[in-house]
Amino acid sequence: MENNSNPQTSADQAKTVAIVSYITLIGWIVALIMHGNAKSSLGAFHIRQMLGLMILAVATSLIRIPLLFIPFLGFGINSAISICLLILWILGLVAAINAEEKPIPILGNLFQKWFAEIGK
Fold this sequence. Notes:
Elements: H1 7-20, H2 24-37, H3 41-67, H4 73-97, H5 108-114
């Protein structure tokens, strides 16, 4: 029987939740369920970050789809938005891997504020 009161085990579980939350919507749901069983500030932080990124991706897709009909310019803007989202996702994932509560640039602190109730 595993003893979950070990601080190292708790830290490992929190880090796992943080990392898994960045693996698509399914990973985010799994992380949310795992977090419910062993709450941690690290896990909650990254669950909120990824939720914000997913909502941002959906919101920007509503903007990006009509842009595809603008020759050249639309493709460039669409690519730039996609690259920015990818960079934000990578920065969040790297912070999770390093077990840091480091918000993604520009919107990370807002995500923490807007989704403060998630993960409590």
